[in-house]
């Protein structure tokens, strides 16, 4: 047997709840109406009893030798007029002077008359000779205000129930109306639920939810969904890791969680475009934001995030290798020309001049190699500086190592230092090479101190204009064209320095001067 759809199950449960609620309400209504009807009959019996007990003819009849001859006609007339089941008058001994059944006159009453004989009125339900009835017992007082008898007036339960059942059609109509409205509402709710759940069974919905959760939290891409108002409705584990969000992010606005800047603009849709690159801490992310459309209507947006930190590093290394390869080709061509010069000098018999030419040529390059080897203890940074020197030379820029440069092998984290120095040197070489001025140079100083490692990169380029001095470290800002990773180098370098508790600053002294401090572990930059 095929399991019922969720909408059908909800319909049956709703109908059962509505039916139970209506039946409970009906029972309570019936109980309340029954109490009201009984109370009305009790009040009615009590009123009749007081009327009979106060009648002078009835009081005077108690002095007759045969009171029943005067009292019986009066009691029966009142009983029939008031549609009561019985009106019984008895003396203090409980002997009846009236009764609907004449054979009962002169007999003792079947119920306890003591409350009335004590001068108190009483109402309740008792079993008598005619059956179970709602009755009232009222004392009859003589001229001296002594109790001389009692009046018992009652209505049989059949008569009370008949009155009660007369109100049942109205109660039944209310029950039917409530039940009908409840079932109609349940059917409408079931149909709406069926449309919204596409007729899926509970186990299908559970399976889809499990698949959704496992897929969203299992992929290596960050996923963040927002509604029309910019509130986060979904964020998977990878997005939390990449953006530094916690479990309370869902339900909050992006503007409340992300500070102003490029990241907020991309996540909120203020900055459009595909494969937008941004920095999250010291991570390079690629973000894509697409509208979420349901039934042809935009209900929010979905942002995917890819971590390109490692890939970006590889691309930068590849650019460096390419530049180095170009430099090596240029050097090979240059050395080929120099070899031809040496060969020509030897053929002309000028061996001494050839030796001097070779010595001058080798000295220029070897001097820088020896300087880097002596002063830079970290092999990764030393290799980076030599590669950047070759690239600068190939682009017609003189590369200098400042005299105060000193860096022991264990002075700093090589990865962070390479990131900062590499980006600063690249920008400096680009600035000098594109300035068009002859004799341009770039000077690098790296020095270990008590507070960490200080870096200074100077160049002879045009410097940094005042109009862009505040923007140059913002991610996405660049004055270059034609590169695939624009506007991230300086932003990434500053983020690395900040993460270490340091700083990166720029000033102008002829050309641009970038200074950075990367504190050692356990120290803070002032």
Textual characterization of the structure:
By secondary structure, this protein is α+β, with helices and mostly antiparallel strands. The protein folds into 3 domains: 6-166, 2-Layer Sandwich (Beta-Lactamase); 219-307, PAS domain (Beta-Lactamase), CATH 3.30.450.20; 311-519, Heat Shock Protein 90, CATH 3.30.565.10. The protein is 50% helix and 20% strand. The chain contains 15 helices and 14 strands. The chain has helices spanning 6-53, 56-61, 67-82, 114-117, 157-166, 168-196, 202-218, 237-243, 254-257, 262-268, 309-347, 351-375, 379-394, 414-435, 489-499; strands at residues 86-91, 122-127, 132-141, 147-156, 222-227, 232-235, 276-280, 283-294, 297-307, 398-401, 441-449, 452-459, 503-509, 511-519. The strands form 3 sheets. Strands 6-5-9-8-7 form a 5-stranded antiparallel sheet, sandwiched between helices. Strand 13 and strand 14 (511-519) form a beta hairpin. Helix 1 (6-53) packs across helix 5, helix 1 (6-53) runs antiparallel to helix 6 and helix 11 (309-347) runs antiparallel to helix 12 (351-375). The chain is rod-shaped and about 180 Å long. The model has no long low-confidence stretch (mean pLDDT 78).
Low confidence ranges: none
CATH topology name of the largest domain, in short, is: Heat Shock Protein 90
Bulk shape: rod-shaped
Would you identify the CATH H-level superfamily of the largest domain?
Histidine kinase-like ATPase, C-terminal domain
CATH classification, class level of the largest domain: Alpha Beta
């Amino acid at each position: 047997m095929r399991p019922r759809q969720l909408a059908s199950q909800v319909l049956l449960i709703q109908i059962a709840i509505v039916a139970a609620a209506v039946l409970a309400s009906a029972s309570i209504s019936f109980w309340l109406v029954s109490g009201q009807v009984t109370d009305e009959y009790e009040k009615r019996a009590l009123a009749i009893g007081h009327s009979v007990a106060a009648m002078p003819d009835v009081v005077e009849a108690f002095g007759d030798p045969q009171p029943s001859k005067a009292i019986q006609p009066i009691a029966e007339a009142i009983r029939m007029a008031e549609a009561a089941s019985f009106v019984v008058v008895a003396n203090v001994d409980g002997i009846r002077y009236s009764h609907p059944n004449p054979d009962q006159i002169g007999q003792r009453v079947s119920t306890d008359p003591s409350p009335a004989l004590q001068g108190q009125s009483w109402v309740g339900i008792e079993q008598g000779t005619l059956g179970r009835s709602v009755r009232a017992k009222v004392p009859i007082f003589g001229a001296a205000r002594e109790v001389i008898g009692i009046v018992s007036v009652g209505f049989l339960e059949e008569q009370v129930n008949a009155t009660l059942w007369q109100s049942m059609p109205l109660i039944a109509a209310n029950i039917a109306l409530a039940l009908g409205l409840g079932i109609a509402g349940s059917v409408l709710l079931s149909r709406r639920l069926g449309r919204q759940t596409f007729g899926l069974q509970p186990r299908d919905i559970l399976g889809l939810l499990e698949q959704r959760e496992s897929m969203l939290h299992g992929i290596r891409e960050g996923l963040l969904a927002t509604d029309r108002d910019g509130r986060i409705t979904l964020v998977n584990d990878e997005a939390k890791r990449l953006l530094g969000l916690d479990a309370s992010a869902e339900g909050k606005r992006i503007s409340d969680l992300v500070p102003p800047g490029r990241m907020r603009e991309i996540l909120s849709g203020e900055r459009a475009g595909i494969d937008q690159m941004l920095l999250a801490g010291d991570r390079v992310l690629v973000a894509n934001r697409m509208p979420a459309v349901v039934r042809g209507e935009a209900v929010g947006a979905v942002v995917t995030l890819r971590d390109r930190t490692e890939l970006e590093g590889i691309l930068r290394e590849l650019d460096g290798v390419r530049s180095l390869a170009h430099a090596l080709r240029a050097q090979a061509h240059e050395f080929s020309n120099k070899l031809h010069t040496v060969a020509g000098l030897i053929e002309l018999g000028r061996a001494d001049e050839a030796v001097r030419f070779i010595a001058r040529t080798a000295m220029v390059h070897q001097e820088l190699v020896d300087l880097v080897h002596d002063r830079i203890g970290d092999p990764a940074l030393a290799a980076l500086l030599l590669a950047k020197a070759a690239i600068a030379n190939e682009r017609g820029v003189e590369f200098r190592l400042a005299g105060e440069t000193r860096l022991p092998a264990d002075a700093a984290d090589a990865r962070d230092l390479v990131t900062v120095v590499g980006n600063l040197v690249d920008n400096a070489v680009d600035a000098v090479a594109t300035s068009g001025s002859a004799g341009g140079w770039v000077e690098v100083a790296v020095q270990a101190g008590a507070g960490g490692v200080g870096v200074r990169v100077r160049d002879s380029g045009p410097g940094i204009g005042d109009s862009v001095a505040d923007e140059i470290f913002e991610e996405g800002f660049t004055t270059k064209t034609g590169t695939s990773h624009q506007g991230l180098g300086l932003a990434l370098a500053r983020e690395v320095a900040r993460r270490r508790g340091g700083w990166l600053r720029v000033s102008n002294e002829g050309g641009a001067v970038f200074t950075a401090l990367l504190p050692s572990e356990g120290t803070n930059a002032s």
